[in-house]
Automatic annotation (TrEMBL):
Signal peptide: none annotated. Keywords: Cell membrane, Membrane, Transferase, Transmembrane, Transmembrane helix. Pfam families: Sulfatase. The keyword Transmembrane applies. It is a multi-pass membrane protein. It comes from Gluconacetobacter liquefaciens (Acetobacter liquefaciens). SUPFAM superfamilies: Alkaline phosphatase-like (SSF53649). It is found in: Cell membrane. The chain crosses the membrane at residues 6-24, 31-50, 109-126, 138-157. This is LTA synthase family protein.
Length: 498
């Protein structure tokens, strides 16, 4: 390499190391904690440098990517109260295919201005830097390719994967992304978690068992709704009148209701979604707990939906958005659903959020048309942020919640639609609803409202008397619903009709 290239690579390496230290939230850590980061970064840089024959440009590219990782981690910690994890790699493409869920949380001057400048500078350097790697170019490129191909092949071959996992566990990763980033570095922890999660995944998948589900002879309709960013806002100030009148009515009449302990805040819907349907705890999932749909749910699993299908139910999941979002079009059949219905059923444009009232009408119409007993899992999305600063709804909560209150009222109206339906009141159905996570609002940041991170749920069965508050974990909700179904008593009219 030329002298200027050696100097440039050395300087950029120091900058990258500083960035990675800051990302791990431990900028003054001992040098030995840098070793996993250094090994991963060195392999990545050397492979690209050998393939392109441009060492300085390759180093600048990895510095830019490290800076992007720092920005993503800082944003996620600020908005969602947790760091970047290895499973977030699956969301990189989603930033560009579904930007409304990601880019509003990053200042445009940073993302488009500084980001564009750095990418442009890297592209310019690649175009003007002459080939500078020593040795035969063809041999160099072959070695560069092998530096990438060999680890990837070893990752996908089970015997070598087991060896890699044993070596990595000598570093004693804890599985906690915050602690492992501090001790192994951000890149080191990514590599460790990626390898260990794949190595242990088959055993965890085999152990994922929902258990038996007993259904009554009349097989009543069962509707389970996951409400986006939903919680009982009356908890913020019990002295104020809550505008969620439909939710309150269902909660007061419910067989079960209470707080729901969820494993996310502000986002990561799939965690609550999978926990409810599978009954799996974070401990059951291990490192796959961060995003169960990334790899864990890519094979058939024993779930509530699978058990309902075995019992004679038509199992349907409806998500009025892009059915490919988070790979749900591949996951839902593995979770036991006969049909997975996306935004195409609502004639929604790409990126459009279907109002909750429209979803409520669709659910009622679908069940009315079906002759088979139905288990319907609705994953609504209309209440997704970001929200406007000002609320149009008149309420004492409006100054606190802003535009979030407006979309929440749509959820409440949908609850009223389902609670007043024929399938629930005349056919003896069961209606359950829960919040997937609290919204990412300033008033809730760092538990500023002193209500914890839980959401709320209810299970409404007109054949059962109202019960007291019963707080549970989200992974218990599916089994609570199954318990309600097992002890269900048909309404006289429903029994006569069947």
């Amino acid at each position: 390499m030329h002298g200027w290239a050696v100097a440039a690579v050395s300087g950029l390496a120091i900058i990258a190391l500083v960035i990675l230290r800051i990302t791990s939230c431990r900028p003054f850590r001992p040098i030995w904690n840098d070793l996993p980061d250094v090994v991963v970064a060195l392999i990545l840089w050397l492979s690209l440098a050998l393939l392109t024959q441009r060492p300085a440009s390759s180093a600048l590219l990895w510095v830019v990517l490290a800076a992007g990782l720092l920005l993503a981690d800082h944003t996620k910690r600020a908005v969602l109260r947790e760091p970047i994890v290895f499973a977030d790699a699956s969301e990189l493409l989603l930033v560009f295919t579904h930007p409304r869920f990601y880019l509003p949380y990053v200042h445009p001057a940073i993302f488009y201005g500084i980001g564009g400048l750095l990418v442009g500078a890297t592209a310019l350097l690649f175009s003007i830097e002459p080939p500078a790697m020593p040795g035969d170019p063809a041999l160099s490129r072959l070695i560069g390719a092998l530096l990438l191909v060999v680890p990837i092949a070893a990752y996908f071959w089970r015997p070598s994967l087991n060896v890699m996992a044993r070596v990595i566990r000598l570093l004693r990763p804890t599985g906690d992304p915050v602690e492992d980033a501090r001790t192994l570095g951000m890149l080191g922890s990514f590599a460790a978690h990626t390898v260990c999660s794949r190595q242990e995944r088959p055993a965890r998948q085999a152990a994922c068992r929902f258990g038996s589900v007993t259904v009554p002879p009349d097989k009543p309709p069962v509707v389970l709704v996951q409400a986006e960013s939903f919680f009982d806002i009356g908890r913020l100030d019990p002295a104020l009148p809550s505008p969620l009148t439909e939710f309150q009515a269902c909660r007061d009449q419910a067989w079960r209701h209470g707080r729901l302990d969820v494993d996310s805040w502000g986002a990561n819907t799939t965690r609550s979604e999978f926990a409810t349907i599978s009954g799996a705890t974070p401990a059951d999932l291990g490192l796959d707990r961060f995003n169960p749909y990334y790899s864990f749910a890519r094979r058939p699993l024993d779930t509530l939906a699978a058990r309902m299908r075995q019992a004679g139910y038509l199992t349907v999941c409806v998500h009025p958005y892009d059915r490919r979002f988070y790979g749900r079009h591949k996951v839902m059949p593995n979770l036991g659903f006969d049909h997975f219905i996306g935004g195409e059923a609502f004639e929604s444009r790409r990126g459009e959020l279907v109002p909750d009232e429209v979803l409520g009408d669709w659910i009622n119409d679908f069940i009315a048309r079906e002759t088979r007993p139905v288990f319907l899992f609705a994953i609504k999305v209309a209440n997704h942020g970001p929200w406007s600063a000002q609320a149009e709804t008149e309420s004492p909560f409006a100054p606190i919640l802003g535009g979030y209150l407006d979309s929440l009222m749509g959820t409440d109206r949908m609850i009223g639609q389902l609670a007043g339906s024929r399938w629930l009141n005349e056919d003896g159905g069961i209606f359950a609803l829960y919040g997937d996570h609290q919204p990412s609002l300033p008033v809730l940041m760092n538990d500023g409202a002193h209500i914890g991170a839980s959401t709320d749920y209810f299970i409404l069965d007109r054949t059962r008397p109202a019960g007291p508050r019963h707080d549970i974990r989200v992974d218990q909700l599916g089994r609570e619903l199954a318990g309600c179904l097992m002890n269900h008593t048909p309404l006289p009219r429903a029994a006569a009709g069947r």
